[in-house]
């Protein structure tokens, strides 16, 4: 026993180091949310909630992840069963010329004494594997919900883009008709008419592009929902309000991320397996009890008057070519590898949060600038239209101002989408879960 206690690994305390790394990983300003929100509560929409529920039930990728959890749960039950006694019942019969028939039966109970808790370590490691897979499943749910929300916002964005494009084409069509009328009256030029028709045809081509893009987005969202086909998904005409998630203290925020919790569970599982691998170097004790009976008649051979035996066996590995020591070294290195994977996941999480926080501020400033530019462009457009009708401005000047105005409307539309989508991404980065 004293010799067994001396055989241990030399790896650092990776679990404590992982927690310390997490607590010191970020330094963004803390603020306390007024309410604790789930990821799918950032947008208040009954239609979106129905789509999210459908995706959680039918998305094939998420269902595969759920099956992986169930597989690991079965493996954990398998590992736990190795700690329990094994019971086996056997029977055989035969017939030999001259000796007649003979029947044998036996009932055997065998049990490996978990003297060093190595079987317990492996069972607990399998439990940590289940915990890791459950966290990965939670992370897959969160990512799926965020993708559905972003796809839904994307449909609204593209529909608004199409509406802006249709308004642009309507304006260009009116321009072309006005130019044709002036040309017929002898006050317009052929160049003006050609320029207007050229720009109109180009914008009609862009409308076709946006329309097909909308259809592709519809198909992509159907895939997320687990639909092979179906009617188009209807969305609102205006952007909904998306609540901006607020970051807690870094340690609190990052601690609820499923990918970090999964990586931490992987460290725990690897550490337990490393401990079990070192314990394999120690002696093991197994016990076996058996009831045996044999007779020429089957009824008498069914343990009616059995003989019993009890066997205890002590096994100590002396020389196995260094296999057990190599297995222990491998397990220790795998623990170190799990710790480095945790660090990589942690730093990626910090980067995602900081990028999303920075984007929220940057996009807000960009939106304010574009709104100012658009307001001035509309005033300028009104003046150019009056100048063109008065003959004080050319058609090229008017078309340029009109194009600039509609381009700014599209740019503002895209910025609104990016800002709302970034809030969803920030919620995902902060580890907001899904409210069932």
What's the quick description here?
The protein is of the alpha+beta class and 436 residues long.
Briefly note the structural class of the backbone.
alpha+beta
* Biggest sheet details: 4 strands, antiparallel
State the domain count.
Answer: 1
CATH homology superfamily name: Outer membrane efflux proteins (OEP)
- Radius of gyration, in angstroms, nearest whole number: 36 Å
End-to-end separation:
51 Å
Which CATH architecture is right? Up-down Bundle
Could you name the ranges where pLDDT drops below 50 across 5 or more consecutive residues? 1-6
Mean pLDDT: 85
The level of helicity is 55-70%
CATH hierarchy class name: Mainly Alpha
Quaternary state reads: single chain
> What is the count of DSSP helices, taking H or I runs of 4+ residues?
10
Inertia-based shape:
elongated
Strand order of the largest sheet: 1-2-3-4
CATH fold group: Outer membrane efflux proteins (OEP)
Strand segment tally: 4
Q: Element order, helices and strands? A: HHHHEEHHHHEEHH
Tell me the β content: 5-15%
Descriptive account of the structure:
There is one protein chain. The chain has 436 residues and is of the alpha+beta class. The chain has a single domain, classed as Outer membrane efflux proteins (OEP). It has ten helices and four strands. The chain has a four-stranded antiparallel beta sheet, with no helix packed on it. Strand 1 (86-96) and strand 2 form a beta hairpin.
